[in-house]
């Protein structure tokens, strides 16, 4: 009596064909998002470009097991001109900014430096809207550690920071007056220190009288 050959259920074959692996053309999600690029075991993996339908934002770069991971850029359309503007270009890890990268803010401000878990952490330089520039250490999105803040009038502070405020030993150069304050700061407020003349002869608006030496 002949033995009937077991046949594989048809859905097994359909499932194999549905598995996304390697380079694919554009794949659309149910919500309208679309992805064009490489896959591995049904997950975005390798090089690819994602477009989000709701925000029209675009990410183009590296993916790892379904998340942005590696080097890539994220852009959004201008609400008026509809032209795409880069928001972030740099390194990613586990779908968050991580490593060195540059972020462009809508206010015109810019940050160049290190990130960790989506926050500014490590060394970085921030260009503020008012013309000030901070360069130094960051932690959890705030200046923290040692850094220098140069104001738009060229006055500057060099020293310690904590939670985004001047903290610890530091120097403040009043270059327009030709003076230097050196002392201890706490929560942006100088607690104690000394004020001396510094470059007074070259200062654009020096004080009427020099500070007497002690």
UniProtKB/TrEMBL annotation:
Short name of any one Pfam family annotated for the protein: MORN
Keywords: Cytoplasmic vesicle, Repeat
GO cellular component, one term: acrosomal vesicle
Main location: cytoplasm
InterPro entries: MORN, MORN3
Function: Assembles a suppression complex (suppresome) by tethering SIRT1 and MDM2 to regulate composite modifications of p53/TP53. Confers both deacetylation-mediated functional inactivation, by SIRT1, and ubiquitination-dependent degradation, by MDM2, of p53/TP53, promoting a proliferative and cell survival behaviors. May play a role in the regulation of spermatogenesis.
Identification of the protein by name: MORN repeat-containing protein 3
């Amino acid at each position: 009596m002949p033995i009937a050959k077991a046949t594989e259920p048809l859905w097994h074959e359909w499932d194999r064909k549905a598995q996304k692996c390697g380079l694919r053309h554009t794949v659309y999600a149910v919500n309208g998002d679309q992805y064009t690029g490489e896959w591995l075991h049904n997950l975005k993996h390798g090089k690819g470009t994602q477009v989000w339908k709701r925000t029209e934002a675009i990410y183009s770069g590296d993916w790892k097991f379904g998340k942005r991971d590696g080097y890539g850029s994220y852009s959004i359309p201008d609400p008026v001109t509809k032209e795409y503007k880069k928001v972030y270009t740099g390194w990613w890890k586990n779908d968050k900014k991580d490593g060195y990268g540059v972020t462009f803010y809508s206010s015109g401000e810019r940050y160049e430096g290190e990130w960790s878990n989506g926050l500014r952490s490590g060394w970085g330089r921030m260009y503020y809207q008012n013309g000030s520039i901070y360069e130094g250490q960051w932690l959890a999105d705030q200046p923290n550690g040692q850094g220098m803040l140069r104001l738009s009038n060229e006055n500057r502070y060099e020293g310690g920071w904590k939670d985004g405020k001047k903290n610890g030993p530091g120097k403040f150069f009043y270059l327009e007056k030709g003076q230097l304050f050196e002392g201890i700061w706490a929560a942006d407020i100088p607690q104690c220190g000394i004020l001396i003349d510094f470059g007074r002869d070259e200062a654009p608006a020096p004080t009427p009288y020099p500070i007497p030496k002690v």
